[in-house]
Amino acid sequence: MKTTMLFLVALLAFAGNSIIARYALLDNSIDPASFIWLRIVSGALALWLLVAIVDRSSSAKALQTRKGNWWGALTLSIYAIAFSFAYVVLETGFGALVLFAAVQLSMFGINLVQGASVRVREWLGSAIAFAGLAYLVAPSLQLPESWLSVVLMIIAGTAWGFYSIHGRGSATPLIDTTYNFNRAIVVVTVALMWFLPDLHVTSKGVGLALLSGAVTSGLGYAVWYLVLPRLHVSTAAIGQLSVPLIATVGGIIVADETITSRLLIAALLIIGGILINVLKFRT
Q1: Which residues contact 8 (CB under 8 A, 6 or more apart)?
Q2: Cys-Cys crosslink for 214: which of 42, 70, 123, 274, Cβ 3.0 to 4.6 Å?
Q3: How many CB atoms lie within 10 A of CB 207?
């Protein structure tokens, strides 16, 4: 039950990130470069504060022995950069399909390369859940104006797959996530210096970027690293297909939008696909 709750918290954080990015980037409240930089920096600051508060003695000991590594920081940075720049160009529904297809394929692929087997039920659960996601976003699907944005979204999903697989080996998730964000500041600062002439920020955009960084990214990713070692790779991969569904339900709650038959059918397919996978490991 504890693992299930942590998994749900992480998925809620991912959905929150999606909603925040939509309001910040698509409304032109902030440019992608500034959004990424503020997101990473505020995430790092929030994580350092959490390390100082949660358990000073154990955190201090962990900080002496665990320093994270650059691989986690690099994959996190690539994901954040590629996602933000693709998000402002790709239509939301098409972008979600590309992103989560890349996440699924990369996590399953890495798992296979590492010698693990992926059984028929896992493929079936993933296919059903992905079909539910496709059905959910079908009415808004449009061909992309730029295929470069599609490539960027594929890179983002693949980088997130590597970041997630990397997190399954974390013995100190909070410390590792903190150092990932700390190192990522260097990566995104260097990478985004090219976009200095195009910076554009508003108070709304800055506020949303800080919220995304400190809460739904920093704390959310720490929870993700905490729960990953307790999950099978296929469960972690397929479970993420529920993120667009959670974001849609959030829109219904916040904006009082209408519950449609399409949403209900998509929810049944997505949740059903996840259960097909999860129940496999409980029998």
Answers
A1: none
A2: 42
A3: 15
User: Which segments of the chain does DSSP mark as H helices, in order?
Assistant: 2-25, 32-54, 56-65, 70-87, 92-113, 120-137, 147-167, 173-192, 203-211, 220-227, 233-239, 243-255, 261-280
Q: Residue 97 and residue 91: Cα distance in Å, rounded? A: 10
Kindly give, in sequence order, each residue whose CB lies less than 8 Å from that of residue 171, ignoring residues fewer than 6 positions away: 66
Distances (CA, A) of 33 to 67, 71, 100, 204, 251: 27, 21, 23, 15, 26
Which residues touch 167 (CB under 8 Å, ≥6 apart)?
72, 173, 176, 224, 225, 228, 229
What is the full DSSP assignment across 133-177? HHHHHGGG----S-HHHHHHHHHHHHHHHHHHHHHTT-SSHHHHH
Q: Count Cβ atoms below 10 Å from residue 178 Cβ, excluding itself.
A: 28
Query: Please, which residues have CB within 8 angstroms of residue 278's CB and are 6 or more apart in sequence?
Result: 235
Query: Distance between CA 176 and CA 170 in Å, rounded?
Result: 7
Contact 34, 209 (CB under 8 A): yes
Whole-model pTM: value is 0.88
Separation in Å, CA 52 to CA 39, 124, 177, 211: 20, 44, 14, 20
With cut-offs at 50, 70 and 90, classify the pLDDT of residue 197. Answer: confident
Mean pLDDT is highest, among 73-77, 174-178, 246-250, 272-276, for 73-77
Give the whole-angstrom CA distance, residue 190 versus residue 184: 10
Region 185-198: mean pLDDT is: 85
Instruction: Please tell me the distance from the alpha carbon of residue 21 to that of residue 44, in angstroms, as a whole number.
Output: 18
For residue 283, pLDDT beyond 50: no
Type of residue found at 237: A
